[in-house]
Specification:
Layout lengths: L2 H40 L4 H36 L1 H5 L1
């Protein structure tokens, strides 16, 4: 396997990881910003108040997007397994 092929596979793997985790990261970001705004407006500074909504938002988005994530990761793994004879040369 040449360096270009290995770098291409690694690039695809990183792109897949970013694409799959992006909805979770965005949900955490939006929830964190909303909680921060709420804490600033009400002057409540509690760590639990900052953590629980963020965790709940990430869990909710994970529950909704898990089938899509599984399909994306499975198709990537199947593509790699099918290319294995070509890559082993």
């Amino acid at each position: 396997m040449s360096e270009a092929v290995a770098i291409g596979i690694m690039r695809q793997a990183v792109e897949m990881a970013v694409m799959v985790t992006l909805p979770l990261l965005l949900a955490g970001l939006v929830a964190g910003v909303l909680v921060s705004i709420f804490q600033t407006v009400t002057s409540i500074q509690d760590n639990v108040l900052a953590f629980i909504p963020r965790a709940a938002a990430i869990f909710a988005v994970f529950t909704l997007t898990f089938p899509w994530m599984l399909r994306q990761m499975s198709s990537f793994a199947i593509m790699l397994i099918r290319r294995l004879p070509e890559l082993a040369k």
